[in-house]
Every structure is written in structure tokens, then in C-alpha cells.
Amino acid sequence: MLENGLIHNQTNYTSFFGGDYTLVDFEHNDVLRKVYTDIYGDTIPNTESVTDNVYHFDLQEILPDNIENQENLTLVVFVVDKNTNTVINTQHVEVGEEQGFD
To answer: What is the pLDDT of residue 81?
Structure first.
């Protein structure tokens, strides 16, 4: 789960943004707030990994306490081949919306 629109000071170690050391009220986007699966992913059963099958995974979790604005949340999901670590598919969706296949 990612959160956007977080306004906080940011230490700057680059020459970007005018080289200022502290960027006051910097907007942070795509901030990782929670991982809801195993950090290396959850295995999709072999019986579900067949042509023309749609695998369903239901997730019902309480939002973590560190969320500042529920309106700014995005879920990101990706499928990885466990043998090659190749990303097969990825999707993202704003919380409360639906995302079909691309």
C-alpha cells in the first residue's frame, strides 16, 4: 500500500531543488506504508496457474496507524515468476476503486 501527498521536510543530499539542504514542506508520493503479503510474495497454487484461469485473492485488513489520509492510498500488486524473478504482470488501483486487466 502506497500513500501520496505527504507533506514533510526532506533532507536533500543533491544539487537538485536549488541545492537546499532541507526542502521545507516537500510533497512525498508513492510512500510505502504497508506490505500485506509475505515480503517475497505469496505463492499462487499450481492448480490456479493454468491458461484462461483468473486467480482471486481476497484481502481484508485494517489500515495501519501511520496513514495520514485514506483518500490518498494506492494498492500495487505484481505477479513474479518464482524461478526467474521476472515480473509477469503488475497493477495499481486507488483504494475504493476497481482495476480490470490491462
So the answer is: 87
**Residue numbers of the domain that contains 16:** 2-94
Please give the tally of structural domains in the chain: 1
Among 54, 12, 6, CA closest to 31: 6
Does some domain include residue 63? yes
Residue 74 and residue 33: Cα distance in Å, rounded?
10
34 falls in which pLDDT band (50, 70, 90)?
very high
Cβ distance 94 to 73 under 8 Å? Answer: yes
* Cα diameter, the chain: 55
pTM of the model: 0.82
Nearest to 70 by CA among 37, 95, 34, 39: 95
